[in-house]
TrEMBL record:
Lineage: Bacteria, Pseudomonadati, Bacteroidota, Flavobacteriia, Flavobacteriales
Protein name per its UniProtKB record: Molecular chaperone HtpG
InterPro entries: Hsp90_fam, Ribosomal_Su5_D2-typ_SF
One term of GO molecular function: ATP-dependent protein folding chaperone
Keywords: Chaperone
Family: Belongs to the heat shock protein 90 family.
Keyword Chaperone: yes
Length: 93
């Protein structure tokens, strides 16, 4: 579990109106998406928050759901547009 936390740290950063909030997104972003890198900037996230608050917050749950859906859509698009290349890279994902 500790290694999983280190893998996630610094890969996805959470901002509120361009102000850094946290890079500890454990429980916010699904575990299977820990290989992603990026920034989430939302006006709906308070500046001072605990991890447990973020995990229970409705806006954060919507963000997590949206990210999951967009990644799935992109993977499906890649699969449909270039199946050979997708299958060659799938094991690396």
């Amino acid at each position: 579990m500790g290694q999983d936390m280190n893998i996630q740290k610094d890969r996805i950063q959470l901002y509120q109106n361009q102000v850094f909030v946290t890079d500890n997104v454990e429980g916010i972003v699904p575990e299977f998406l820990t290989m992603l890198r990026g920034v989430i900037d939302s006006p709906d996230i308070p500046l001072n928050v605990s991890r447990s608050y973020l995990q229970a917050d409705g806006a954060v749950k919507k963000i997590s759901s949206y990210i999951t859906r967009k990644v799935a859509d992109k993977l499906k698009s890649l699969f449909n547009s270039n199946r050979e290349d997708f299958e060659a890279k799938w094991n690396d994902i």
